[in-house]
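TASK: fixed-backbone design
INPUT:
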């Protein structure tokens, strides 16, 4: 018997009890499941960043947030998924034919998703480490042995490429600061 305790975004505690192994070993990810949940996770991350960047205060920059997530741990139980992810979100705008980076953050997070009636997943809760004191303890408690995977730098190149495509810029358009 395995018991898993979740604390939801609303503070409610959900305890799931079942048999068998639920978690995958570190480094092992169900590619098909990740392909289903990744776009949902990245869209949610970008939506939650809106309104928080400097570039959005300067309309001429036409700034937007671009986010990517990499799985650190992915667990499925029935129609629910717990996704431990390393995330990178960057706010880009455009000025004088070039891309400008206005802000961003690299943060480990835990998202919980549920399958909706239409078969697609939706995010039902999201947790992230606090800034400053408590960050290391939170990360260790949520990722355990997998914290080593979070120390690697995430490349912003895919986000820069997505931003260039969105703004119709050349693939080699320079990236400057806001």
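OUTPUT:
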């Amino acid at each position: 018997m395995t018991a898993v305790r979740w604390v939801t975004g609303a503070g409610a505690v959900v305890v799931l009890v079942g048999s068998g192994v639920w978690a995958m070993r570190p480094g092992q990810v169900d590619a098909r499941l990740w392909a289903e949940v990744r776009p949902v996770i990245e869209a949610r991350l970008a939506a939650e960043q809106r309104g928080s960047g400097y570039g959005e205060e300067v309309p001429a920059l036409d700034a937007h947030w671009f986010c990517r997530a990499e799985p650190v741990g992915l667990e499925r139980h029935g129609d629910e998924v717990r996704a431990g992810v390393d995330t990178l979100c960057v706010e880009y705008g455009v000025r004088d034919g070039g891309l400008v980076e206005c802000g961003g953050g690299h943060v480990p997070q835990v998202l919980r998703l549920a399958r909706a009636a239409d078969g697609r997943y939706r995010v039902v809760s999201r947790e992230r480490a606090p800034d400053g004191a408590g960050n290391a303890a939170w990360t260790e408690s949520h990722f355990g042995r997998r914290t080593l995977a979070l120390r690697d730098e995430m490349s912003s190149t895919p986000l820069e490429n997505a931003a260039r495509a969105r703004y119709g810029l050349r693939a080699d358009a320079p990236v400057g600061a806001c």
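COMMENT: Residues 113 and 123 are 4 Å apart (CA to CA).
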